[in-house]
Amino acid sequence: MMRRKRTVGKVFSHSFLAVWVVLCLFPIYWMLVSSLKDNQEILTGIGLPTQWLFKNYASAWGKGDRVSLYLLNSVIDTASTLVITSLLGFMSAYGLLRMRWKGQKVVFTYILTGMMIPMHAALYPLTVTLMPLSRSHFSLIIPYAAFNIPITVLILSGFITSIPYELEEASCIDGAGIYRTAFTIILPMMVPAIATSAIFVFLQVWNELLLASVFASGDLLTLTMGIKQMSGQYQTDYGGMCAALVIATLPSMILYCCLSKQVQKSLIVGAVKG
Amino acid sequence: MKRVLSNKWSIAVFVLPTVLFFTYIVIIPIIKTAVYSMLSEIPAIAKEDSHFVGLDNYVTMFTQGKRNAWWNTDLGTSAVINSLKYAASSVFIQLPFAMFIALLLVNGVKGESFYRNIFFIPVVISSVVVSLLWQRIYKDLLPNLYDILGMQMPKGGILANKDTKMWAVFIPVLWQYVGYHMLLMYGALRSISTDIIEAATVDGATGARLAFRIQIPMIKPMLKVCLSFSLIGSFKLFDTPWILLERSNKSLPALSMYIEMFQNHKYSYASAQAMFIVVECLIFTVLLNVLFREKKEKYSLPRKETA
């Protein structure tokens, strides 16, 4: 009796989960097959394409002025942001949690309050402050980096306090200065934590729309804003649009496929950001 | 050693760049927004002509009458109420659903890591891609589905019809974030000591009873994170509705703020709306903290005596 009840339960949970797997994957499957079809076929069926139209990708990729350009811009913005947040995040986490001084707790709390502040609230003054930079990548890199520093510091802080102080003592006795100790002894040990924070920041920045909608224009359009604009022009070419969506999704997808554990971990740690 | 670690000069080198940068780009703009929200309208960016008006902009937000999208006398269409509706659907539909999946996975289903990895895929996709993808689904696929089911499409399409609009925006958001909440809850459920679960099972608690009496109460801290995540997410919701709904739609606070700011150039009024969103988020954060502190004291398990 008990056993039978359990089998029923198992069948139920598996079928429930299977339904959700299908619902989860169907839009992605549909995006993939639509990117290889023409309009007529997209509108009439959900099966595999009869003719695989790879030219949709070619037309979305463009001659240096479409998705290829947006992709390049997003890579530049995201990579620069990651370098800044990782470097400043590490340095300030070191200074705030490793070194000894009055007021370190206050400054730490001050930086963490930044996590509670939505970008919406700073939007207009930022557009004024960053106006002189509006024709360069810095108009996005600077606010992206600044708004992602608090979460980076938080993630790193959990890790940096667990490193034994003996390391610093030893390197101090060996005659290394504080900068050398921080950058050649502690920094290499922090790589896993920096990777965790970097993955979180990567997903935040790569997918950001609000600031990009204000600062990115013309040649500086990022992927999110670029494909949003394309959706206007491409109203008549659904296949090309879907191809653009696939291209925009690929980088984060590849990251997730290679490092799914890491990605999940960093999003769990980053969830406190809200 | 100690001298090295409290050298003022090196502390400044480590900490000061970040503090200055953060202050200049994050904190000062917030303060400016707060100030602008209490000024009379700023013509363009020069602010010579504006003067202090106190909370007038905030009052205007809530008293403009029938044609005001922010707070309408006809409550059904106001931005603030809409965002509360999203918050409610998120809390009462999305979170229980995520919890259910997390419980199924944690209570021993074969292939749980396979399921978990699949459910998490939508989370890493950009919300812009998700919205555009669902836009295509609504336009290209849904009419066929309605045809097959022999039903009529809602008037004007699912994204324009005022009864279906909200759900048309909610579904992509749900689809994208269920996996996130599921993973958070799953992680917390996993970390409950197996001793406790075993003891409860020996005592005869299984299934729903085990879930409601033991597992859910024990992951309250994570529930708080999920709740604040979905509440704040709803108040700030921008990407999905901005893409899915027609231009100049002001049916949500962030949309309204954006349009007042960049289309109508009413900077002070938009700043007041931005501040309202911040304050709303803060109020609910505090509220959740209070709520979860009380409950924790009432129901916490008695400390294990160490013999």
Give a description of the structure:
The complex is a heterodimer of chains A (274) and B (307). Chain A is mainly α and 274 residues long. Chain A contains 14 helices and no strands. Chain A is globular. Chain B is mainly alpha-helical and 307 residues long. In chain B, α4 runs parallel beside α7. Chain B is globular, with a radius of gyration of 24 Å. The model of chain B has no long low-confidence stretch (mean pLDDT 85). At the A-B interface, α1, α2, α4, α5 and α6 of A face α1, α2, α4, α5 and α6 of B.
Tally of DSSP helical segments of chain B: 13
Tally the structural domains of chain A.
2
Shape of chain B: globular
CATH class of the largest domain in chain A: Mainly Alpha
Low-confidence stretches of chain B: none
Number of strands of chain A: 0
Which bin fits the share of residues in helices of chain A?
Answer: over 70%
Radius of gyration of chain A: 24 Å
Strand proportion of chain B: under 5%
**Order of helical and strand elements of chain A:** HHHHHHHHHHHHHH
CATH architecture of chain B: Orthogonal Bundle
Task: Please give the domain count of chain B.
Answer: 1
Rounded to the nearest angstrom, the distance between the terminal CA atoms of chain A is 46 Å
Radius of gyration of chain B: 24 Å
How would you state the average pLDDT of chain A, rounded?
88
Oligomerization: heterodimer
CATH architecture of the largest domain in chain A: Orthogonal Bundle
Specify the CATH class of chain B: Mainly Alpha
Question: What's the total helix number of chain A?
Answer: 14
Helix content of chain B: over 70%
Offer a quick outline of the entry:
The complex is a heterodimer of chains A (274) and B (307). Chain A contains 14 helices and no strands.
Q: Any chance you could write out the topology, listing elements then pairs?
A:
The complex is a heterodimer of chains A (274) and B (307).
Chain A: H1 2-34, H2 39-44, H3 55-61, H4 67-97, H5 104-112, H6 123-129, H7 138-160, H8 166-173, H9 178-189, H10 191-206, H11 210-215, H12 223-233, H13 238-258, H14 260-270
Chain B: H1 2-5, H2 8-36, H3 56-63, H4 79-106, H5 112-124, H6 127-148, H7 165-190, H8 194-202, H9 207-218, H10 220-236, H11 239-244, H12 253-262, H13 267-299
